[in-house]
């Protein structure tokens, strides 16, 4: 039916409306972003709509779906319309602009950016915010249902598995970061002259950095996108992990590891949220649990690389005494590879379409979902299947316009943009404590804290207990010599684990040897000669040195406790650190081996949780695993040997991993998409805080008592399992 205007008349109308927009924009005289363009575009669409309503011969009829919304094309036109073409893109002259968010051929619903006052007179721009939020809530509910239907149509296949391995690398990088500092400390303390306090701070700084990073990147991911935020966080991690392998001073190394931790802190909150938004309801719990496997792989990778690299002291070089690059620095460099690989792979993957839809970007989301559908269908041998979705519900957006005049300096503009972004992130964080989510958030905080406090506290306490038991066994083999007299003897072999009391040594030579755990008490050294001595945990207490020469030794005066020096001289003392002790090669191998076994032990728990997550539910998995872990804590009282402690470490790790997997899945599903990363990041930051407290408290009781760590761990796990039952079950629900 002829509408009386004709095709040329319609195009003239569009050109005229856009010419008006240009004139208005020039007369405005201010840089107001693209709000005028959007208003003109919206006006053009609404005015042009009357042409479409009068046209009874519509070329593209829309078939209503079962829920009454026009989401799918008529099958007779599906194949013809796959490329997507619209009259809205026709009629542009050379000066026409392509407006942001303009309809360019992909069928969609009316623009999602419909904030208060768009296209209205100034006096009508104040909207009822309660009504706006109600409309937004309704849009989100409709989007959740439709999005699940679309994911069902897209299927689960090649695309999801590709994304699985890409995000797995990012999760693997997080697992590696946890182990790096613990593995390099025995070697790094020699190069950096670390005291016990410095070593403790270096061990905790990674958790502090990850705590800051989880909160920061989680909040940003809900505002600027999952993929973009993850790329930024992994890049920061890679850069400072690389720098940390070359810096020489303790302060510089500490700063680099802190910033590296800040970078990798965004990995867990973003990875799980990102992946969940590509998974259909029946696949979500299982495949998020499979994703947790990469954290285990990261621990295995770190243990294997430490075992293969650090003990090879020949893999080093130095430039004078100022710059040294030893094998442990090579290990730190190698541990940055998973993060670099994740960045490279992530550049090939798209943004989450759910994030785009939540932010009113229909076309971008449609293209990504079509890519998911086509990739999976081609891999399954059905390339002829067409993505039948034409329009997807988008959530109404509140325009947040920052008016910046032409004279505003660039740094002021950036400051205003950053302030606006900060306000958005902060308001989103406060929203998870709104009445609607307050109870859920507080309960999740308690569960996350109790789980992290007990898990990290015990996993660090186990290796420290093993070291303590090793030291006890070593001390039991100490040889004691009393009132020995030695004259004119040359000692050129290793002296180890001995105590000499009331001895007399006359005209003896101690040359080219190592002293390990040697103690001389109330002894006399007269006309003796010490040359090229390397010592650890060696002390001279209440001894007298007469006419004795120390040449090129590390027997610094702090090792001479209440001792007298008579006509004795120190020449060319060795430069280096005044260490009270250092671990030998066998001890280092034991650390790597124990960590390798403890990490590998979580494999059965990962498999069981993945297979049962969607069958028994998240709450039963979380609470059940926590109860069994609580019971296993009481077996710690029987850990009186090194082998028994290793077995208990593996048992606890294998059981508790199911709780972590269930908690990750539950956190993803309890919060809506626009708050998911923010909530996950905050809870993960709280997790790292609890880890710092648990590690500090549990390790303080090593060698004192086992009762306190057992009671703390079991009490925290019992409380966590009890609170878990109070949370809502999310199995079988669409992603909010």
Salient structural properties:
single chain, 736 residues, alpha/beta, five-stranded parallel sheet, elongated, disordered N terminus
Q: Can you describe what's shown?
A:
The structure is a single chain. The protein is of the alpha/beta class. 58% of the residues lie in helices and 10% in strands. The strands form 4 sheets. Strands 5, 7, 8, 10, 12, 13, 15, 16 and 18 form a 9-stranded parallel beta sheet that branches. The chain has a 5-stranded parallel beta sheet with strand order 6-9-11-14-17, with no helix packed on it. It has a two-stranded antiparallel sheet with strand order 1-2. It is elongated and about 100 Å long. It starts with 5 loop residues before the first helix and ends in a 12-residue tail after the last helix.
What's the helix and strand layout?
Blueprint: H1 6-28, H2 35-54, E1 62-63, E2 72-73, H3 75-78, H4 129-154, H5 158-192, H6 196-224, H7 226-244, H8 250-264, H9 267-276, H10 281-291, H11 293-309, E3 317-319, E4 323-325, H12 327-334, H13 337-346, H14 353-358, H15 362-379, H16 410-431, H17 438-475, E5 479-482, E6 485-487, E7 490-491, E8 495-501, E9 504-506, E10 509-521, E11 524-526, E12 529-536, E13 539-541, E14 544-546, E15 549-553, E16 560-561, E17 564-566, E18 569-571, H18 585-600, H19 602-616, H20 618-633, H21 642-670, H22 676-699, H23 707-724
Helix pairs in contact: 1-2, 4-15, 5-6, 5-8, 5-9, 5-11, 5-12, 5-13, 6-7, 6-8, 6-9, 6-16, 6-22, 7-8, 7-9, 7-13, 9-22, 10-19, 10-21, 11-18, 17-21, 17-22, 17-23, 18-21, 19-20, 19-21, 20-21, 20-23, 21-22
């Amino acid at each position: 039916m002829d509408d009386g205007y004709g095709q040329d008349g319609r195009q003239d109308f569009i050109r005229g409306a856009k010419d008006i927009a240009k004139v208005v924009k020039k007369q405005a005289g201010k840089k107001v972003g693209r709000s005028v363009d959007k208003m003109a575009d919206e006006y053009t669409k609404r005015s042009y709509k009357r042409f479409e309503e009068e046209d009874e011969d519509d070329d593209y009829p829309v078939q209503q779906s079962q829920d009454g919304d026009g989401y799918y094309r008529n099958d007779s036109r599906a194949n013809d319309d796959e490329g997507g073409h619209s009259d809205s893109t026709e009629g542009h002259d050379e000066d026409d602009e392509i407006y942001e968010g303009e309809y360019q051929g992909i069928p969609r619903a009316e623009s999602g950016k419909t904030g208060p006052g768009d296209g209205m007179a100034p006096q009508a721009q104040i909207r009822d915010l309660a009504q706006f939020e109600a409309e937004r809530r309704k849009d989100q509910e409709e989007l959740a249902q439709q999005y699940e239907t679309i994911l069902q149509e897209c299927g689960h296949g090649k695309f999801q598995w590709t994304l699985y391995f890409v995000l797995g690398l990012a999760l693997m990088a997080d697992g590696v970061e946890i182990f790096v500092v613990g593995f390099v400390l025995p070697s790094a303390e020699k190069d950096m002259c670390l005291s016990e306090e410095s070593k403790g701070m270096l061990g905790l700084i990674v958790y502090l950095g990850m705590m800051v990073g989880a909160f920061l990147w989680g909040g940003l991911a809900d505002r600027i996108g999952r993929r973009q935020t993850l790329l930024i966080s992994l890049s920061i991690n890679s850069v400072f992990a690389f720098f940390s392998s070359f810096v020489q001073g303790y302060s510089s190394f500490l700063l680099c590891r802190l910033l590296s931790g800040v970078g990798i802190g965004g990995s867990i909150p973003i990875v799980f949220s990102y992946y969940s938004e590509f998974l259909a309801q029946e696949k979500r719990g299982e495949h998020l649990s499979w994703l947790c496997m990469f954290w285990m792989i990261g621990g295995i990778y770190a243990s294997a690389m430490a075992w293969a690299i650090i003990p090879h002291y020949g893999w080093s070089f130095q430039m004078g005494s100022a710059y040294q690059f030893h094998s442990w620095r090579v290990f730190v460099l190698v541990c940055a590879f998973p993060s670099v690989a994740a960045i490279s792979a992530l550049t090939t993957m798209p943004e989450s379409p759910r994030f785009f839809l939540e932010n009113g970007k229909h076309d971008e989301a449609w293209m990504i979902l079509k890519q998911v559908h086509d990739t999976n269908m081609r891999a399954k041998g059905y390339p002829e299947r067409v993505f039948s979705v034409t329009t997807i519900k988008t959530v109404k957006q509140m325009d947040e316009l920052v008016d910046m005049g032409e004279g505003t300096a660039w740094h002021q503009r950036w400051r205003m943009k950053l302030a606006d972004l900060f306000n958005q992130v902060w308001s989103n964080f406060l929203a998870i404590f709104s009445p609607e989510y307050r109870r859920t958030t507080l309960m999740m905080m308690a569960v996350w804290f109790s789980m992290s406090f007990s898990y990290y506290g015990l996993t660090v306490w186990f290796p420290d207990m093993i070291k303590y038991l090793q030291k006890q066994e070593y001390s039991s083999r100490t040889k004691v010599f009393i009132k020995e007299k030695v004259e004119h003897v040359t000692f050129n072999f290793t002296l180890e684990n001995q105590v000499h009391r009331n001895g007399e040594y006359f005209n003896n030579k101690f040359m080219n040897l190592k002293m390990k755990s040697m103690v001389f008490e109330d002894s006399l050294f007269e006309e003796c000669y010490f040359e090229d001595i390397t010592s650890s945990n060696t002390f001279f207490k209440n001894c007298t040195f007469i006419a004795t020469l120390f040449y090129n030794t590390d027997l610094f005066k702090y090792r001479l406790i209440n001792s007298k020096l008579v006509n004795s001289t120190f020449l060319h003392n060795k430069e280096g650190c005044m260490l009270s002790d250092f671990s030998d090669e066998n001890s280092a191998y034991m650390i790597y081996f124990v960590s390798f076994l403890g990490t590998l032990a979580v494999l059965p728990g990962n498999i069981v949780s993945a297979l049962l997550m969607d069958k028994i539910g998240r709450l039963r998995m979380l609470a059940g695993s926590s109860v069994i872990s609580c019971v296993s804590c009481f077996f710690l009282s029987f850990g009186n040997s090194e082998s028994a402690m290793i077995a208990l470490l593996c048992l606890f790790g294998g059981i508790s991993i199911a709780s972590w997997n269930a908690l990750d899945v539950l956190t993803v599903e309890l919060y809506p998409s626009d708050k998911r990363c923010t909530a996950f990041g905050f809870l993960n930051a709280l997790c790292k805080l609890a880890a710092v407290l648990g590690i500090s408290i549990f390790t303080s009781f090593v060698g004192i008592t086992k009762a306190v760590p057992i009671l703390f761990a079991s009490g925290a796990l019992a409380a966590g399992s009890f609170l878990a039952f109070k949370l809502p079950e999310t199995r079988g629900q669409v992603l909010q």
